[in-house]
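I had to read the description of the data format several times before I understood it. In essence, backbone conformation is discretised, so a fold becomes a row of integers matching the chain in length. I therefore recommend that a typical entry be quoted early in the introduction. For illustration, here is how one protein appears when written out as sequence plus structure tokens.

***
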Amino acid sequence: MLSIPFGRTRFCDGVSRRNFMKVGALSFGAMNLTLADVFRAEAAAKQHDPFARTRHKAVINIFLGGGPPHQDMWDIKTEAPAEVRGEFKPIATNVTGIQIGETFSRIAKMADKFAFIRSVVGARGGHDAYQCTTGWPQQSLASMGGRPSLGSTVTKLQGNVDPSVPPFIGLAEKTQHVPWSDAGQTGFLGSTFGPFKPSGPDMVNMTVNTANRDNLPDRKKLLGHFDDMKRAADYAGALQGADAATERAFDVLTSSKLVEALDLSKESPKVRARYGDGKPYKYQYDGAPTANEHLLMARRLVEAGARVVTLSYGRWDSHGQNFDLVRDHGGKLDQCLTALVEDLDARGMLDDVTVIAWGEFGRTPTINKDAGRDHWPQVSCAILAGGGMKTGQVIGSTDRTGSNAKERPVGFGDIFATLYHNLGLNSETTTILDPTGRPQHLAEGKALPELV
């Protein structure tokens, strides 16, 4: 805790005492950084316009928690029996030969910007985000903490783009079914490499300090107090070796690039309207809301310097009312996902930023008595965009009923190898050391040649 004096108050005993403004340490993952630490790191970065974008590779990982129904989205089965094919019809896209579900009319109009994987295999069947954030089964290296997520691994290997912006940010709102709001675990790397969660108490601390900037005393007086504090601390030996950067630490609190990125009021009403807000939140139950604005926030965070942003979108566990749920969730996802890709493209970021949306498994081919589909880990789907990939194509196929992969089965590890490739990391040659000192590969698959 740092206490900053900013004036005097005369008490009834006649003694004038200084007031103090207390500022807590900022916390990113499990790393507690003092104000001086944060600023000293900032000073080491290139000086540039605070709103300018640093060009870097990034991933926005959209988790569709609950298991989206593949045969009602990207893999419509018109030739299947009535008890399988469901209520949706296929619609043509702007890519000859590719059809997708009628709920996704916006995506259909820009399918050349997307790649549809219809044959994702290897799901373990758990209602959690683990495989969609790590690419590994949950039991892998469990004895030493498990495998680290993509965000944690990238934080370890590539670090910050901008020292004032965490490289790994989790936007997932807290859900009643907790595993659906998992932003990505640190595994054997330890909590130091965990995600920064803006919805947590650390962000509240930062926001309060920033929001109160207009109520703080004159900046010059505060900076003068920093000078006094620094001299006193140096005299005591507490800041030996500190540079002049400490004097500007106050600016970190009052002009945080991270807080600016999270402030959607900075966006025009027109842009926000294109994304929509995803309300009213329907079929949420114990899952995540359809928070469309999280995709806009993800774009702003990447623009500010984040490398990996994860979020949980909707609750897709459609044991009942499957088709009503897809109309609601699918239509909202259609709006915000296309807005995100259009936005990235217009800003010259699409080749650098990979976007993926997927869930932990698929749904049963047969429709149950409640007009729902049940859990089906045998095959699922994913949609990707950006990252310099070859889009405008479908990868893999399933059989007539959507029960199993028929052509080109794609594992979670293959998809993660592709994500790492897009970030500039070769998953076949790059390793990280586990707690025993043994090198571990980043993924158990190979980057998809169709995409890269």
User: Anything to note?
Assistant: The domain at 53-206+254-441 is CATH 3.40.720 (Alkaline Phosphatase, subunit A). Residues 1-33, 45-52, 238-255 have pLDDT under 50 and may be disordered. The first strand starts at residue 2 and ends at 10.
